[in-house]
Amino acid sequence: MGEFIAGLLIGLGVVGIAGGAYLTYLRWKSRTGARVRMLAKQYQAMTDSAGRDIPMELLAQPEFISSRMEFRKIEAIEAELTGEADRVVAQKLLKDFFKMDDPWVKARAAKALYPMDRKSAFAELKVLAQSNSPFVQIPGIWALGELGSESALELLMSLVWSKSPEVQQAVIRCLVQMETKQQIPPEYRPKVKRLLKELRYKTDWIL
Q1: Separation of alpha carbons 150 and 185, rounded Å
Q2: Does 1 reside within a domain?
Q3: Residue 60 counted as domain residue
Q4: Secondary structure in 3-state letters for the chain
Q5: How far is it, in rounded angstroms, from Cα 23 to Cα 28?
Q6: Which of 7, 78, 114, 162 could form a disulfide with 167 if both were Cys (CB 3.0 to 4.6 A apart)?
């Protein structure tokens, strides 16, 4: 009888260990599966972007395409900037990205170029932001919000009443972000506050 009980306890212990190991495996598999799904989603967003078929809710999130080769090249150019000679070469290389079709690549290159050549960078972003296509406008709006300059602010404010809800939301997001980061010059703050207040009353956006 004693041997039977001892054997039973050992058997239950083995089952418990096996069960625990199986649950651990399931949790690991779930985490792994979630990461695979996330990477697949990012890759799909990147490839869809090139084909202009990316969903608008993903289009406003540049992190979904940050691993693109073009973005890596732009980051490498920024990292190599050490002297005036480098800046001259960098300007030429960054302007070459303006010839590409992807508006996110153009916007990212313009953002990198801005500290070296404000006129050319802003001109490129203005073309993007004033496009007839929301797909093209949103990357330009994102980059303008990142610049935080007076000219960028004025251009963003001019787009706030866009008929496209996606574009309007992107502009509002940028203005609120600039306000939160205190990037809005003192002379513009009252105007931006009035604009956001007017938006709050005339639209469904929660500001």
Answers
A1: 7
A2: no
A3: no
A4: CHHHHHHHHHHHHHHHHHHHHHHHHHHHHHHHHHHHHHHHHHHHHHHHHHCCCCCHHHHCCHHHHCCCHHHHHHHHHHHCCCCHHHHHHHHHHHHHHHHCCCHHHHHHHHHHHCCCCHHHHHHHHHHHHCCCCHHHHHHHHHHHHHHCCHHHHHHHHHCCCCCCHHHHHHHHHHHHHHHHCCCCCCCCHHHHHHHHHHHHHHCCCCC
A5: 9
A6: 162
pTM for the whole thing?
0.65
pLDDT of the residue at 63: 54
- Report yes or no on 104 lying in a domain: yes
Tens digits of per-residue pLDDT, 73-115? 898 888 887 777 788 889 999 999 999 888 889 999 999 999 9
Structure confidence by residue, pLDDT tens digits, 37-77: 444 444 445 444 444 445 555 555 555 555 467 888 898 88
Q: Are 142 and 170 in contact (CB under 8 A)?
A: yes
- Does residue 28 lie in a domain region? no
| Domain range enclosing 100 | 65-202
Domain count, the chain: 1
Q: How confident is the model at residue 15 (pLDDT cuts 50, 70, 90)?
A: very low
